[in-house]
Amino acid sequence: MISIQIKQLTKRFGTVVALQKVDLTINPGELFFLLGPSGSGKTTLLRCLAGFCTPDEGKVLFGDDDVTHLAPHRRNAGMVFQSYALWPHLTVAQNVAFGLEERQLPRDEIRRRTGEALESVHMTRHTGRKPNQLSGGEQQRVALARALVVRPRCLLLDEPLSNLDARLRLEMRGEVRRVCKEFQLTTVYVTHDQKEALSISDRMAVLDGGRILQVGPPREVYRRPARRTVAAFIGEADFIPGKVLAAGGGRATVETALGPIDGVLGDPTLPPRAGDAVTVSVRPECWVIGREKKERNCVEGTIGGAVFLGEVAQYDFICPGATLKIVELNPRLFGQAAEGALHASVDPEDAVILVD
Asked: What is this structure's pTM?
């Protein structure tokens, strides 16, 4: 296992700055996700790691080796592309063996390692098939086996599940994590799918405009977004503008159109002062709807639009000054919108105060 270090990496395409002095360390054996909207720089960063892009400034290190200017084939990094990039005229076994043949390994070793790689992704029954005879999930497994068979120092994945249907994506998420952990590979995975990242990553980085906005474990990034951009990209949130009444100890009280809200700072290193404009971010599932009025962080309102989804219901909660998006788990109130006033409350731990 190796670490990957990215130091002050900058990449420009003409006048467009795709990466701006990016610093990042990925730990040995870590399954690390790069997320962000289109144009955020995540794919450019992955291509710099793979050697398909040469940065204008900065360094890329695999362990202690500076690979910044090495050609892709000299980095010993496995790459799985979004399109899989399988040779259509070769069989499954021939596709997987291709990298070993290019390295001119002995025929017996090629056969053995190809068999082991296909077994690791449960594709030994399809060795003689061509790619057009495989399902999308099977093609994805072959692409993964082809990357693993060369025994790479690290694995780079560029939205590998985006071409699969929802059921297959769900199935393959766990499979990708299993393979990466089984082979003890340091893995960098680019995606725009937040559910993929939240469900299988060890840590993630959210990028926007060529900069890293936040790095952390998935639960931390979701529950404690440091910026509004992060909160908006990872899941849904109600954003409530206001001004700080008091702040200290990583917490603050904010005066809003809904009344005062106590909460925690998304970025404790940038504490606001009294009078500063801030935004309170609350995840829809963190609101609790009931008849009883709470003493803190509570607003009165009525249910407007409502959608029943079985295990959850989604509400438009209309209150003076705002309409909140609220998700109720195990719905009890669905269909009772006209039965008197309701109150929505949120725990201060779930009200995140954002300075930007």
From this structure: 0.86
